[in-house]
Amino acid sequence: AESLALEEISDQEVSNLFFSVGNKLDITQIDKFYTETFAHLYSHRHEVEELWIQQGDNRLVDVSWPVLKYISALHWAQLPTSTWGQKELLDLGAFGVALTRHQLAQIPATAFRSVSTMQNFFSDRLTLGQLYVIFDKINEGATESFTLPTHLYPCLHSSLLNGAETADKMRISTSVVDFVKASNKFTPAQVAAYLDHLGADLWSLDNLAQVLQYNPSLLGYVDTEDFVSHLEDLLKAIWNSGRDKFPQILIELRNLPRRLLHAWLLQTVIDEDGNLLVDVLLDKSESSDYYERISSSSSAASIALPGLCCDLIDKIPVDRLMEVLSVYRATLPGEVIPSNARMCFVSAIRQYLRTKAASVSLQVTSEVELLSFLSSSDIRAVGGELLLSWGGDVLANIPHPEVSYEILIKIGEEYPHLFFHNGVLPADVKVLAEQFFKLLKRKNKGVVDMGVLKKLGSFLPYLESRLSVSSSMVKDVITSVFTDPLQKAVCLCQEQRKKLGDLILKGFGEPDKWGSDDLVQLGDLLVTLDESDLFKVKPEVLRKALPTLVKTSVYSRVKLAEVRGYVDPQLYYVACDKWLETDTEHGEEKLSTAWERLARWYISGASLITSSLPTSTPRPRLEEARKKREAAEEQLTASQELMQLPYVESSYRKVIEILTEQIPTKLSSEKIDSSLKILKKNRQILSDIAASVIGVSSVKSAESVDKIVSQIQNSQLPESHKQLLRYVSLVTQANIVTELSRIFSLTAHDVGLTDEEFARLQVLGFHNLDLSPEILKARFLSRFGHAVASSVLSRRKRETVEDVDFMKLHDKVMELLMEKFKDLTPAQQESSKKIITNSQELIGNGTLSLLGLDPTTMRLSEANVLKTIEDKKKAGLTQDQEDGIVLIARDAQIRLVQELSDLMSLTAGDLGLDQDTFDNIKALETFKETELFMSTAVYDFTATPTANPLAGDGQTGVTVTGPAETSTEPSIDVLIDKEGKFFHSLFNEIPKLSDVKVTCDMIRTCGSSASMLNQADLHAMDAQEVKDCMEDFGMLEYSMEKAEELWPELKAKLLGDDSSAQFSPGDTVLLHNLLTVVARHDLDLLDMTAANIDAVSVLGRVSNLSPAEMAPVMVRYLESKETKVLSELELKSLGRLLCGMTEHDWDTQNKDKLVSAATSIAMAQCKVPGSEVEGALKIMFSGLEGRVGDLGWLTLYAVDMAQVDFRELSSDITQNMLDVSQYSADSLMSMNPQAASMVSVELVGQLDDTDKLTALAASTGEDPVLRRELTARLVDLLGQFPPPLHPPTTTTPPETTTKDDNSSSTLSAVLILVLAAVLTNFYL
User: Fold this and answer.
1) 644 Cβ neighbours under 8 A, 6+ residues apart
2) Residue pLDDT, tens place only, 526-584
């Protein structure tokens, strides 16, 4: 924004530049741009509205919440929302996007009568919660039938979507595209209802094109058979969508359920003889353009490559395996290869390597020998993720150094979270890191340089060797290795985090010297730093970097699939903690704790941004604000101009000369008396100021004036005081010229000036001649920013109290005020508020005066004062001014302690002080200079309206400069919170979150990081702020423990003391990710009736309740129905609520409807109460062998498990296994690691067949917990470690130097390690 202000370009060029990059600006840059650089941008509202808010069919521009709210609020009516009418909503347009649900609810329903015809009012940025309020308002205000805006279709009940009921006054479109767009916000019940209504019409070419463009995920709900039968229609719709839309459609299609993609491949890439057609699978052709290749393909099979499963992988010809692998890995939509596909690929790779060995007549006896046959191109095709499946023991003992080197390079290029899903533990990664480092050093002749460290890649944080490198190299390495957010999300134990943190400090220097670019480069690597280091960062640096930091942060934003021991994807930090369990000592800080510390620092930083948002008295219109600022600057410029005019003294001498000549002959006695009065008055002003400067009493006689002049000439006055005397001298001279010219009717020519010079001189005169010398002196010096600083500094140097932390003392007094406020009398309560607001006014006036600005011409809020300070810092402050700002703030803290202590009768003991210290504090003098200035200040600006829709319920903030206006005062907790943020900002500190009252704006600013708030943070929040942010809280992702911690406080804030309260259907939907904990502890708060199916279906989608916890929830729902028979819509909508049904409940259902809804029921991934329902499920779902791909966990009950490929078992199946002894050892051996990790420990304890235990140990080899349990069980049964299990041994990885060094002794040691880890048993 600053560079834009300096360039000589047209308004239109500035406008275009702003629209293209403005959404990336810092909030203070946005503010400056709107109010200074391009203040008439207000007139370009429609460009901002269209490009940043509405966007139409295009993807929304990424605009941070503070910027969005700032810009939106500028276009709101300057009236409370409760008074808005249709005109205000028409004027509002799409800028209503930043209104809270509470503010929308305050708008009278009559104002919404025209909204149904207002296309510009709606945008995709409106949240579901906002849409619910608008929908209710429109219906409430409607007096006749109306056409419902399509953006409000997510508010329609599912019974309207499937045609079961008809709308009353609403006219609803029949356009498929409108409903497909709206379906992105549908609940599961609404999706099921609309798809039911759409039926076979889903597969029409036009409708499929709309689905592909606006919501391809709808295809994920269809049965596999239905999907395959319409595959040709789907391909036609893809090509009809065109090249431009294809890239996004491709991404969405590859994210469809694997069952559908697998069926796509089965339908298209297998010939009549059962062979895999690789060229068809890869859409091979001569064209290098992918779109051209697949658009000319009859199957477009490569789109469905993520659907490869073991049955197809087994069919890949050995000589084409690496080609397929290379393309397959590039097509995966996520970052993790599914466990079943991974292990089948590993098995295929083993067969490929055996074939290579056989081709040169070599016999392979171990895994490490086998891997030695990998070529460079093989390693690149296989990738690090598959190589990690061999486990750390194998990878650390590959005898061929070049193979080992290239494998480790490839693994180092991968994201670190891939370690979580494989056969490596943290200890293994450390070993591999050290081995790789030694290989790199050896290849680089022992030199550790930039190249060596960069090649370590993701291994770098796990390196235990001490690095002796320069700080500049460290910074270059960190910025070049950790370039992606997923690379920065390191998963390290406490000791390793400390080492990496020290390395960061070495490379980047002390945090107080960092810039915002440094923070952005580090990102989540900041998790390695201590709290003390984080809080050294300058506030303005964090403020600028924060939007990027929270947007790219991984720990609470990314969910990882394939986490051992979990069916559902898990938050990144939860998965990391799980992986680190074997490397975390008792009492050691977990990664989740370090992440919570960093996240809370982010939230603290959000207070720095949101303090710049308008939250009280609205801004005047932009042009008005600019004019006032320019007027203030003009006044300062005028004072400086006067001191530079060369003709003031010459015109003064000329007037005195004329006066002297005319007194004897031409002047009347009346004019002489007037002239003398003018001269005496101005001389007295000058002498009084001079006396004040040198510290003597005022004088009257000419002789005394001469003495003062002499003293001044002989004294060493500060330059600021010399400037003061020169200024007053010139002002009095200009004033004399002006007044005597009027008396004598002198013209410009008479006094030796041009007309322009004469006119300018007359407007530069002194207008405060009736003020005291002290006030005149303070007024002048404050304009030039000297007196306050020098006076405050000199006073503070004299008046100090040692060993007192005034910030802590201030916070203590504020804490006591909050505690005692309700016990104060009404008069005392008002006095306490007045003390706080007066303190802020003193800070504002003092600070502006210190900076050379005139507070009398500027009405500024706390945020404006802070922004002004920052702007001045950029322009350059003197050291006195910088120190003075801090000391003015210290004055305010002392004043508050003094006055509030008196008001509440606090003692030294109450504040933790001894009596002498307390007495000394109370005796300190504060704000002497500022109060002197303010005592006669005349504030010259137009009052702006106090009502503001941002305040919601009429609350206003505090104006820190100028006299307070009469308005509805904010509550004491709001005042204290704002005051605390103000102080921390003045002291150039990032406030601790415990010292800040969290607001909804802060939560929206922080995004996913806000999920790490704690119970105390919520307890301190205003109830209305929590209510405003209920939807945001509901959409955050929490660990189970964090949700349990936060819910009691959220409940208290949302419902208060209303014991009969129940969440509305809309509120239930908005609670979303919190519904599990609500159902667990407060089921009565939820309407669990069939009429509320839309909201109940959300609970069914997100619930992770255990079967025992789910049972009473489902009982409550079924009891609300006349009959316990569920409709097909309910069966497709209720999700995991069905997991709580009893055997009787299942028996009661209609089998045909269950079979029809089987795909949706399977998607619930139920864990059911075991043998209690097994019989009923087998009866209801038997005979579905032909739909195995659709069945998921129902497979256990629908088909004969002996006919099932155990390699393909999903974890939701194995978690429901009741008895693993019924399966063969071969079947158990072939289970993929993720599915095997869900076999319960109880089942292991019941198994006494050593062959089956050994087989299960092989398949669970990547899970240290289950492997430990299985090993213990085998030892219990046999009394020893049976083959192939052995007690763990520790050996040093070989440091072989040639490919041919394959000694039998080395291989024997390696083989023992491999067998001990059980990993060699995978598919050999």
Assistant:
1) none
2) 999 999 999 999 988 999 899 999 999 999 999 999 998 899 999 999 999 999 987 77
